[in-house]
């Protein structure tokens, strides 16, 4: 008998009148908002303009959602295009199935487009957004809890996740490792690590983002190893384990090379805004100096005119009999 476990919700959707509110989608949306909010704060701290992060996110988020779904469908194509598959189900994002690798890759493309349009260096934007992305992932992972999916091996630990049986999809009830919770907590730790390292070492030129990627991959590898859902294997390892390993190596290499080529942190992250503010401040200072000089001349002229007046009056008075 299980004395303690984490219960799963009886349903993954709540109806607000005729509008269905799906737990999976709700977690993704909340994660996006929190990530953009924190990214905006960090961007402003670096000298950027408030609202720029959200403007670029308008490009990054849709690209990320499409990329995440494409990665999932391509690497897990059987339910959609395999035998007895349902191709239209590939569009049902609310049922779960967003691959973080595709989301980051295509989301980065969208962010690059947004940065190009605003004349902003992409690495600086990625650095500002990195901790928010980790926290957004931590929140988004709870969507798997609502859908009762992507859990780990069976266990009787006190924090085991209770899964309800569902013969329609072949789901066997029991208590399993809550891998969604493990990854959520790991992502919060990654966010804390990235924020600390950024303050301690003043990272820049994309190294904050690279640290986030490397730290996330390290955790994703062991969490992925615990999962029991179907996945493609290469040389005995799940596909996502190989992806984690490759991306981890690339992130570490980038950090090393970037530190040698561009040490330190960017002084200007939003040229149009920051340089424009500097020009305005310079104009104000120049105008103030000019006013002071003109005022000084006028002030000097007024005493002189006043002192000359008595002389003129005296000369005039002396001419009279």
Report on the architecture of this protein.
- The protein is mainly alpha-helical and 321 residues long.
- The protein contains ten helices and six strands, in the order ββααααααββααββαα.
- It has helices at 23-45, 52-75, 78-81, 100-118, 122-140, 142-147, 179-201, 207-226, 239-261, 271-318; strands at 13-16, 19-22, 161-163, 174-176, 233-234, 237-238.
- The strands form three sheets. The protein has a two-stranded antiparallel sheet. It has a two-stranded antiparallel sheet with strand order 3-4. Strands 5-6 form a two-stranded antiparallel sheet.
- α1 packs antiparallel against α5 (122-140), α2 runs antiparallel to α4 (100-118) and α8 (207-226) packs antiparallel against α9.
- It starts with 12 loop residues before the first strand and ends with a helix.
- The relative contact order is 0.11.
- Residues 295-321 have low confidence and may be disordered.
Task: Please outline what is shown here.
It is built from ten helices and six strands. It has 321 residues and is mainly alpha-helical. It is 65% helix and 6% strand.
Report Rg: 31 Å
**Main sheet properties:** 2 strands, antiparallel
Shape: globular
* Terminal Cα span: 130 Å
Please outline the helices and strands.
Blueprint: E1 13-16, E2 19-22, H1 23-45, H2 52-75, H3 78-81, H4 100-118, H5 122-140, H6 142-147, E3 161-163, E4 174-176, H7 179-201, H8 207-226, E5 233-234, E6 237-238, H9 239-261, H10 271-318
Antiparallel strand pairs: 1-2, 3-4, 5-6
Helix pairs in contact: 1-2, 1-5, 2-4, 5-7, 5-8, 7-8, 8-9
């Amino acid at each position: 008998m299980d004395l303690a476990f984490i219960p799963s919700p009886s349903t993954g959707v709540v109806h607000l009148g005729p509008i269905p509110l799906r737990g999976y989608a709700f977690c993704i949306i909340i994660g996006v908002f929190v990530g953009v909010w924190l990214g905006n704060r960090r961007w402003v701290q670096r000298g950027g303009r408030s609202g720029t992060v959200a403007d670029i996110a308008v490009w990054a988020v849709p690209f990320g959602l499409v990329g995440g779904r494409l990665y999932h469908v391509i690497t897990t194509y059987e339910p959609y295009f395999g035998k007895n598959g349902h191709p239209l189900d590939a569009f049902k994002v609310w049922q779960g199935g967003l691959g973080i690798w595709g989301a980051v890759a295509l989301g980065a493309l969208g962010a690059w487009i947004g940065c190009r349009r605003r004349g902003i260096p992409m690495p600086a934007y990625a650095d500002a957004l990195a901790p928010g992305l980790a926290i957004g992932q931590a929140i988004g992972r709870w969507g798997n809890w609502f859908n009762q999916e992507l859990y780990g091996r069976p266990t009787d630990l006190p924090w085991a996740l209770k899964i309800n049986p569902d013969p329609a999809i072949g789901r066997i009830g029991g208590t399993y490792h809550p891998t969604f919770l493990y990854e959520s907590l790991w992502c919060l730790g990654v966010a804390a690590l990235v924020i600390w390292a950024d303050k301690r070492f003043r990272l820049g030129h994309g190294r904050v983002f690279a640290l986030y990627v490397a730290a996330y991959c390290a955790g994703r590898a062991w969490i992925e190893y615990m999962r029991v859902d179907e996945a493609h294997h290469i040389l005995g390892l799940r596909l996502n384990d190989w992806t984690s390993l490759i991306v981890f190596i690339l992130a570490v290499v980038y950090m090393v090379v970037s530190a040698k080529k561009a040490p330190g942190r960017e002084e200007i992250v939003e040229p149009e805004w920051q340089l424009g503010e500097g020009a305005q401040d310079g104009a104000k200072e120049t105008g103030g100096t000019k006013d002071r000089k003109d005022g000084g001349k006028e002030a000097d002229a007024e005493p002189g005119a006043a002192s000359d007046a008595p002389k003129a009056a005296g000369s005039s008075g002396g001419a009279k009999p």
